[in-house]
Design goal:
Elements: H1 19-40, H2 46-51, H3 58-83, H4 88-106, H5 112-138, H6 143-154, H7 156-175, H8 177-195, H9 209-212, H10 219-227, H11 230-259, H12 265-294, H13 301-322, H14 326-341, H15 344-353, H16 360-376, H17 379-389, H18 392-395, H19 398-416
Helix pairs in contact: 1-5, 1-6, 1-7, 1-8, 3-5, 3-16, 3-17, 4-5, 4-8, 5-16, 6-12, 6-15, 7-8, 7-12, 11-12, 11-16, 11-17, 11-19, 12-13, 12-14, 13-14, 13-15, 13-19
Amino acid sequence: MESPRRTRPPLASRSPLAGPAGATLAILTIVNLLNYLDRFVVSALVESLKRSELALSDTQAGLLMTGFVVVYMVASPAFGALGDRRARPRLVAAGVFLWSFATTVAGFARSFAGLFLARSAVGIGEAAYGTISPGLLADLFPRSARGRAMAVFFAAIPIGSALGYVVGGLVEQAVGWRAAFFVAGVPGLLLAFLCLRINDPPRGAQDEKSVVTAPRPSVLGSYRDLLGNRSYLLTVLGYAAYTFAVGGMAFWMPAFLERVRNVPPARATVLFGGIVVATGFVGTFAGGWLGDALLRRSRNAYLWLSGVSTLLAAPLAYLVFTDPRPAFYLPAVVVAELLIFASTGPVNSVIVNVVRPEERGTAVALSILCIHLLGDVPSPPLIGRISDSTSLARAVLIVPVAVLLGGAIWTLEAWLGGPGERPEG
């Protein structure tokens, strides 16, 4: 008797994250992980840089992140416009190569000025990658699966950031702070060539035909459209407050644990890095999957989820910085970060869903400009300046206020009932 033939499952039953689109998502996610490892490796080295021959102050340490972010946000609009009009894989590959080269060069710095210039140059390369990738993913996946796709992609943020703390701390302890920059930078020089092989679908390939066939607006026309889009603007404004809080906490938390909670240096970076990995992975994935599930019930599900989870995180963030008992502040930081990371996939899905397919690169670029200009450009040096004037324990109390503000803005936009997220079908 002839055995039954095995057949592939019908297309409708297969995961929307499988196939060629899933392969491209995997490559972009790995590169995004390296992106954030590179970005936050310097946070693990703050205390070492203060004790090194560079003798950095807290204000100078904060400026290292600010220099990168300023260049990143200023370069983003140019790459956003290019990403809407040119071949995206080549732009992404060039960006990855450039930021990796700049990170490697940082390991040779002999002064604060040299280190500042190297870290600032990283922003040019990351601007190419950061502005183009979300729009490319939106063209690979249908609206009903974008929350999950964005969750996979943005899960690399906490994991890569945590690896920055862990790798930076361990390498610094073993062979010094310069080697940490080499370890963070060299792999990207190789991954840049892999990016040349990613899929580049037509703009709007997963959107309704009536939307896709609309004429492409000019660059200025795209910005006029975005500035007149209330849902987009409020989403980005809430994201700016969120970024202020996350950027300040991410940069200063290892130093806070060392200086205020008296945690040994190596343990501080590994402890916080481990918490970020676990909570970032679970929170980001849970938020993306839950957002897609709730989208069947509410067109503003992504905003409701982002707003409510961030509001709930605010009092826990306050407890993290005010209660000295590990039995209280450690569980508080775990739950707070789970709630904060739950909004990552949904809020980025809102940004690409409420704009035209031909404007997604520009929309992401303008978002990057705003969230960094109002967010993690001022927060690390502001916390550093307040710390120099008073104490780090007082300076970090600005973080839970920003968390509360971000959650309030997203909840307000969900309640106002903007354009929202309409599921397909």
